[in-house]
Amino acid sequence: MVKYTAEELLHLKPEETLPVDFDAEEFRAIIENIKQIQALKEEEYAAHGFTNRRRSSHHYHTRPKVKHNKPKVTTDADGWSTLETAKGEEGEAGEESDEEDSAPFVATISTETIRVKPNNKNISSSRPADNRDIILDKQTNTFNAFAALESDEDE
Amino acid sequence: MSVEEVTQKFESVSVDNNAPKTVLNDDKSFEVKHPLNTKWTLWYTKPAVDKSESWSDLLRPVTSFNTVEEFWAIVKNIPEPHDLPLKSDYHVFRNDIRPEWEDSANEKGGKWSYHIRSKSSDIDELWLRTLLAVIGETIDEEDSQINGVVLSIRKGTSKFALWTKSEDQTEALTNIGARFKQVLKLGEEDKIEFIPHSSTGKNAQPTLTL
């Protein structure tokens, strides 16, 4: 078996860099390219971390609440129904809600106008559901035989 | 012998210019090369930069060499270990053995391995020492137990692994492990482990520890 000690091998090391039978330049270029890609990924991770990921719930004891309960309606003995709104909706009033709580309750009639637009899709005819349009479409210059007879007698 | 005779004889002596040049007298255009015991192949595992890349796409043979001079030419032309990207591996394996457990030359073998903290040691020097011991066949004096050597570059650590062709030659493997520790400049407190390829996995237990 041919053997060389480390010292013998180091003694045979040429000073010059000799050519090789593969494309060493391309090999080094591939490695340099990979290092650049890895550096870019590292930068991206440092800039965003986990924030560009969807929120995971694996570390919570319960799953995030996605489906909310229906609004609760209670009806008293007199037949009045009360809607218990969600906490979030109450919170939207903000600071003003505190003032309102202390003031006596005043019932107000809503002044908001509700506009209802007729939907022709649900009417059997595809024509517009407006009588004025129907009148306009009616032919008006028809011959009236009775009116013509009356005019003859007058003469 | 007269002075004239000596002069004549001296003039007749000349350096044989036709003798083959060695690396020692001309390191640019030498002709005589020092053969190694066997051919060796350098493999490189490229880190995956795309999820679609499989192991077979990443592991590629770079080149082969069977002389000392070719070895040095390759060493000088490829990046040193500290210059490799993370998740890269250099493999130097005997002949055409693939650096995989599935290769018939490896399937009944195992590996001595040791993790070195990259910042605390000069991995370039240790890798070169390991290569010289392996290709010079001084790490395995009795018979050719060594199939190859692997260097894995990972975050904060580098793994050196010496692959053997058998897993049950305890005495030979112990001798190799002891020399491997010397090559890696490890002390008594540093432990290297031998794990057979047949049990390699998450719960693999070393069969030898030095």
From TrEMBL, chain A:
<dbReference type="InterPro" id="IPR031456">
    <property type="entry name" value="Caf20"/>
</dbReference>
<keyword id="KW-0810">Translation regulation</keyword>
<dbReference type="GO" id="GO:0008190">
    <property type="term" value="F:eukaryotic initiation factor 4E binding"/>
</dbReference>
<dbReference type="GO" id="GO:0010606">
    <property type="term" value="P:positive regulation of cytoplasmic mRNA processing body assembly"/>
</dbReference>
<keyword id="KW-0597">Phosphoprotein</keyword>
<dbReference type="GO" id="GO:0045727">
    <property type="term" value="P:positive regulation of translation"/>
</dbReference>
<feature type="region of interest" description="Disordered">
    <location>
        <begin position="50"/>
        <end position="105"/>
    </location>
</feature>
<dbReference type="Pfam" id="PF17052">
    <property type="entry name" value="CAF20"/>
</dbReference>
<dbReference type="GO" id="GO:0005737">
    <property type="term" value="C:cytoplasm"/>
</dbReference>
<keyword id="KW-0963">Cytoplasm</keyword>
<feature type="compositionally biased region" description="Basic residues">
    <location>
        <begin position="51"/>
        <end position="71"/>
    </location>
</feature>
<keyword id="KW-0396">Initiation factor</keyword>
<protein>
    <recommendedName>
        <fullName>Cap-associated protein CAF20</fullName>
    </recommendedName>
</protein>
<keyword id="KW-0652">Protein synthesis inhibitor</keyword>
<dbReference type="GO" id="GO:0003743">
    <property type="term" value="F:translation initiation factor activity"/>
</dbReference>
<feature type="compositionally biased region" description="Acidic residues">
    <location>
        <begin position="91"/>
        <end position="102"/>
    </location>
</feature>
<dbReference type="GO" id="GO:0030447">
    <property type="term" value="P:filamentous growth"/>
</dbReference>
<comment type="similarity">
    <text>Belongs to the CAF20 family.</text>
</comment>
<comment type="function">
    <text>Acts as an inhibitor of cap-dependent translation. Competes with eIF4G1 and EAP1 for binding to eIF4E and interferes with the formation of the eIF4F complex, inhibiting translation and stabilizing mRNA.</text>
</comment>
<dbReference type="GO" id="GO:0017148">
    <property type="term" value="P:negative regulation of translation"/>
</dbReference>
<keyword id="KW-0648">Protein biosynthesis</keyword>
From TrEMBL, chain B:
<keyword id="KW-0396">Initiation factor</keyword>
<dbReference type="InterPro" id="IPR019770">
    <property type="entry name" value="TIF_eIF_4E_CS"/>
</dbReference>
<dbReference type="GO" id="GO:1901195">
    <property type="term" value="P:positive regulation of formation of translation preinitiation complex"/>
</dbReference>
<dbReference type="GO" id="GO:0016281">
    <property type="term" value="C:eukaryotic translation initiation factor 4F complex"/>
</dbReference>
<dbReference type="GO" id="GO:0032266">
    <property type="term" value="F:phosphatidylinositol-3-phosphate binding"/>
</dbReference>
<dbReference type="Pfam" id="PF01652">
    <property type="entry name" value="IF4E"/>
</dbReference>
<dbReference type="GO" id="GO:0010494">
    <property type="term" value="C:cytoplasmic stress granule"/>
</dbReference>
<dbReference type="GO" id="GO:0051726">
    <property type="term" value="P:regulation of cell cycle"/>
</dbReference>
<dbReference type="GO" id="GO:0000340">
    <property type="term" value="F:RNA 7-methylguanosine cap binding"/>
</dbReference>
<dbReference type="GO" id="GO:0000184">
    <property type="term" value="P:nuclear-transcribed mRNA catabolic process, nonsense-mediated decay"/>
</dbReference>
<keyword id="KW-0810">Translation regulation</keyword>
<dbReference type="GO" id="GO:0005634">
    <property type="term" value="C:nucleus"/>
</dbReference>
<dbReference type="GO" id="GO:0098808">
    <property type="term" value="F:mRNA cap binding"/>
</dbReference>
<keyword id="KW-0648">Protein biosynthesis</keyword>
<dbReference type="InterPro" id="IPR023398">
    <property type="entry name" value="TIF_eIF4e-like"/>
</dbReference>
<keyword id="KW-0694">RNA-binding</keyword>
<comment type="similarity">
    <text>Belongs to the eukaryotic initiation factor 4E family.</text>
</comment>
<protein>
    <recommendedName>
        <fullName>Eukaryotic translation initiation factor 4E</fullName>
    </recommendedName>
</protein>
<dbReference type="GO" id="GO:0003743">
    <property type="term" value="F:translation initiation factor activity"/>
</dbReference>
<dbReference type="InterPro" id="IPR001040">
    <property type="entry name" value="TIF_eIF_4E"/>
</dbReference>
